[in-house]
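So, can you check this one?
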Amino acid sequence: MPATTPPARYDLPWKTALTHAFRDFMAFFFPDIAAEIDWRRRPRFRDKELAGISMSGEADSRVADKLVEVCWRNGSVHWILIHIEVQAQRDASLPRRMLDYNYRIFNEHVLPVSSLVASHNPFAWITLAHLRTQQAGHDPNELYAAKWQCTKLMYQHGWNKKRILAMFYVINWMMVLPEPHQRRYWQAVLDLNKEHEMRPFNPLEQMLVNDGIKEGLEQSVRQGRVQGRQEGLELGRKEGALALLERQLTRRFGALPKTVQRKLAKADLPQLEAWSDLLAEAESLQQVFK
């Protein structure tokens, strides 16, 4: 049976991107509003308040919402509700959902893909990845080609390692490849690193381990046993998830307390993945480990 791509996940990549680069998001989609915001005062994400006013308690992987408190240049405080809803096709019943409407106008009428490729704003790149994912559908070869194009563009933009790591999170949540295609993708990324004479950074190496390229496959070749490969894959995935989560927690909240380090060391892979999902919206360590 030919490989097919798993369902695309849109909510977490958009939420992560909004948290990481909210100013870039506003500048790209709403430049007039961005010009009125006093960026010297850090925006505050009001996720608790948003949860309290949500119209539905059920999570929807097609929807990403963010409620952000910002200060205008005149000193007044405003809350901005960002609602992103992924639609397979245009839906006439949704014109009042302003960001979704804005996104579709942007998608279909305003900016061609060539402009997205040329722009250095990270949200141009994220939007391009989003559009390419929809265009590829469930064809793994088309999605691989689209993901590889977006990855090469990411390196060409000359972003720093912190931003590249965040964008790797986004693209791997959004553009989910079958395992053989994903292994091929990571090998191509390693070659691209060498081409750009970049030192591989630990999270990227751990992502490779997460896909079983180092631990699982090497152990399988050495021992010639399926069991060895499976054990190696599982170990690699856990180590990769742990390294990435530790790095992101440290960047968001500073040095980790020993109690948190012990929790991470003892956790299994499903628990690490659950904490990673919570990190996208958490404003404190307590919210991650609640």
